[in-house]
Amino acid sequence: MKKCIILANGKPPKKSVITFFQKKGFNKLICADGGANSALKMNLVPDVIIGDLDSVSSEALKEFKSVSKIIQLKRQNDTDVEKCLKYVISNKYVEALLVGATGNRLDHTFCNLGIVLKFISQIKISLIAENSFLKAYSGKVELKTSPDETISIYGISSKTKISSIGLKYELKNTSLPFGERESTSNIAKKKLVKLKISNGVVFVIRDVKNMIDNDLF
């Protein structure tokens, strides 16, 4: 399966996080415009740089012009992250890890969370922000967990119902509509947590360091 990392122009994770996922099969690095600046600082070589190229530095462009595919797309109806996602979808990637998608602008963070939902029917997307790993799920899900791991679950719509097996605070056909109710800081009580999600999508947020340390991917 073709998997990639999309590095956006927000606060990037540590290089060790990116190299961990590269070893897990996310072996293509796609930079969204100024994400190439972060790649340069971390001594990572993008396979592709995509965007209107208004944020990428001349230094990064000079460094990568002979080793990376650079695609300038000036259309303004898409964000640079969306341009990257449309590129990887057209190239038959099945999963993307979005990093550097958050930072000191809440509007960009909110936009990129929305992008996860917007493209969920076309590609699997997960997102790393600071110490958190977020993934959107629907249907029946099995999560490998560690003892007493913190797991937070957020619904989007009141129509979406969630049931669980293996959590301290079990969900029983529960609705978790955004802004009304949530399952923050729930706790895994088994090595495998099972979720059944009907009529929609939920966000599951976990600690990325714990997941890496316990190889829970």
Q: Which terms summarize this structure?
A:
6 helices; 12-stranded mixed β-sheet; 12 strands; single chain; Jelly Rolls; 217 residues; globular; 2 domains
Written account of the structure:
With 217 residues, this protein is an alpha/beta fold. It is built from six helices and twelve strands. The chain starts with a strand and ends with a helix. The mean pLDDT is 95.
Topology at a glance:
Layout lengths: L2 E5 L7 H9 L4 E5 L2 H7 L6 E4 L6 H7 L4 E4 L7 H11 L4 E5 L6 H13 L5 E6 L2 E13 L5 E6 L5 E5 L8 E2 L7 E5 L4 E16 H6 L4
Parallel strand pairs: 1-2, 1-5, 2-3, 3-4, 5-6
Antiparallel strand pairs: 6-7, 7-12, 8-11, 8-12, 9-10, 9-12
Quick recap of the structure?
It is built from six helices and twelve strands.
Question: DSSP helix count?
Answer: 6
The count of DSSP E runs of length 2 or more, i.e. the number of strands, is: 12
What is the helical fraction, as a range of percent?
10-25%
Gross morphology = globular
> CATH homologous superfamily of the largest domain, by name?
Thiamin pyrophosphokinase, catalytic domain
- The CATH class of the largest domain is identified as Alpha Beta
Rg, Cα atoms, Å: 18 Å
What is the mean pLDDT? 95
Structural class: alpha/beta
Total of domains: 2
Briefly note the CATH topology name of the largest domain.
Answer: Rossmann fold
Strand content: 35-45%
Tell me about the largest β-sheet: 12 strands, mixed
H/E series, N to C? EHEHEHEHEHEEEEEEEH
Q: How far apart are the termini?
A: 15 Å
Give the second-level CATH assignment, the architecture of the largest domain.
3-Layer(aba) Sandwich
